[in-house]
Automatic annotation (TrEMBL), chains A, B:
Matches recorded under Pfam families: Creatinase_N (PF01321), Peptidase_M24 (PF00557)
Name listed for the protein in its UniProt record: X-Pro dipeptidase
Region (Disordered): 192-213
Domain Creatinase N-terminal, chain residue ranges per copy: 8-140
Coiled coil: none
Source organism per UniProt: Streptomyces variegatus
Database matches in CDD domains: APP-like
Domain Peptidase M24: 148-350
Amino acid sequence: MSEVYAARRTRLREYCNAGGSAAALVSRPANVRYLAGAAPPGAVLLLGRTEERDLLVCAGPTADRPTQERPDEALPVQTLPGVGGDPAVAAAGIAAGQGADSLAVEEHHLTVTRHRALGSVAPRLRLAGLGSAVEQLRVVKDEEEISCLRIGAEIADQALGELLESILVGRTERHLALELERRLVDHGADGPAFPTSVATGPNAGRPGHRPTDRRVEEGDFLSVCLGATYRGYRCEIGRTFVIGTAPADWQIELYDLVFAAQRAGRESLVPGAACRDVDRAARQVLDSAGYTEGLTVLTGHGVGLEIDEDPQLSPAAMGKLDACVPVTVEPGVHLPGRGGVRIDDTLVVRPEADGGPELLTITTKELLAL
Amino acid sequence: MSEVYAARRTRLREYCNAGGSAAALVSRPANVRYLAGAAPPGAVLLLGRTEERDLLVCAGPTADRPTQERPDEALPVQTLPGVGGDPAVAAAGIAAGQGADSLAVEEHHLTVTRHRALGSVAPRLRLAGLGSAVEQLRVVKDEEEISCLRIGAEIADQALGELLESILVGRTERHLALELERRLVDHGADGPAFPTSVATGPNAGRPGHRPTDRRVEEGDFLSVCLGATYRGYRCEIGRTFVIGTAPADWQIELYDLVFAAQRAGRESLVPGAACRDVDRAARQVLDSAGYTEGLTVLTGHGVGLEIDEDPQLSPAAMGKLDACVPVTVEPGVHLPGRGGVRIDDTLVVRPEADGGPELLTITTKELLAL
């Protein structure tokens, strides 16, 4: 794996050299992990003018909490001897000491206070902006990364499948969410990819609903959204069910509509498609049925080391999809007081020649009455 | 409760006026919650020159995730109409529109990018630093806040007590941690106050250990650290046990030593005590027994809306303890390859006339063999 990380750092180095900065300081944890193989708490990556100068700077004993992941072995590590020091400040000092005259930093991650401390420790170092260069490198995944997402999706499918076999009526949203999270870990996840959402009755279909003490009742919609983290990679699946022997007509209608919107979104996932067109494909199905109010801003987003990454699938999104970009497609409708439906898959954009979009979350999307 | 939040805002307003800033922008979520009663995702508090101008600015539909807490009803709320907007930027615009010439902001929380956006939207507004003024207001708790911590501690005690009655040998750290978190929620916690730590055998006693798949074995030390969040307030308890019929001599010795250190720390919690003296009281017991290596930087810290607040109990800490400040006392020793002991309580500093420090986490600290 070491070559993978070195190659990623080389790409970033080329970007920085083109932008006129000899050195870069990467502080956002997911970015550090992407480039260094692991992100111990507080650690920053100093990217030097040449590979030999790359350095992972780790915090001292305070933050010395063991992580499961090990950094790239080819990357030198420096741990701060003192206590409470800021690895970013130390790294700026090291860069200045090596004669760098400018350092590109992640201004969207560093606070004003930390940025000022960097300037103080190395007053001759010009602090430039790295922008979201590393986030952009992270958008297209390699097969190793996709394989982690695939395993995570399998784990989430398993956890969800087991829950559906158990008795649901009378149990609270909170308990069902905890049970799902336990099952994720049972099946080998590092942990949940984000707080598991379980929503019943009038709560069903609310995006990002936090589980409450409401109990599942006959006739409810039940919507569930969960994901596993596997080797740092986070996937997402969402499904909506009906509790009881037979769904009501309005439930079937609403479900079919959201299902059609979600399918339209999935089917438009081809390399080269504009992100806003994927969003529009899903959104216009809901729009044309009169559900214009209360739609979420996004109908999907990238996933990877974070659960919400670029690209964004929204009306205002710029940019096009590339092959090997994993995204969610997750339209939904929520009717205040009545509940609603959300259907959410994680898929990888693939060329049609390779069979089109690869569905990672394979739990059925038929409307199940449980 | 509304008067409580208004009174907190008044205190901050007095501080800002004394510092020469007519308006302040509070963005750190725990600080927003402290002053406004709730912190919807992304929301910021704009503190005006007078109470009538205070305003909670909330993000638009993207972040519209229901929270259980409601903001202070006396506080006007403005929700951004658009999508993806930054409430902090909107608040700066509002302050400028109201004729404020300077705005104190939380430079330790705002990123460089956000700070720059504030400057762009209101170029005539001078951005000053609010420092950690709100964090300092939060240090001394009122009885309502302490009562939330007390209930949280009871919940943690219950969860831990139930775990001790179950069979432990053969179960993994990961499972025990999940079980504890489920029990916290069962007993009414909003959720865990921080990721529950369960450490067995050679892992026992490691601060902040993340649970692994190691199983509990006969003869192990087992150390557990958990806490409940109750109405936003976070407490912490840590205990170490021995698995099997009788502890080994080295285990008893090490346990007694850490217990003595923890007791020394607890007994030095009096109003007016220097934070570093409390740290020293605990630390010197371990030092004088030869355990100078591998001690943690802190032997305790404040708790409240965050699990790690001021004051810090460490050798370099400045400042003194006041009455009604809740802190942890949590010394420990970890012997590489063998394991170790941590004992951790949450207590409230109280004057001797009121009976001295109030212990919130009452699970026994005898060495139990389970």
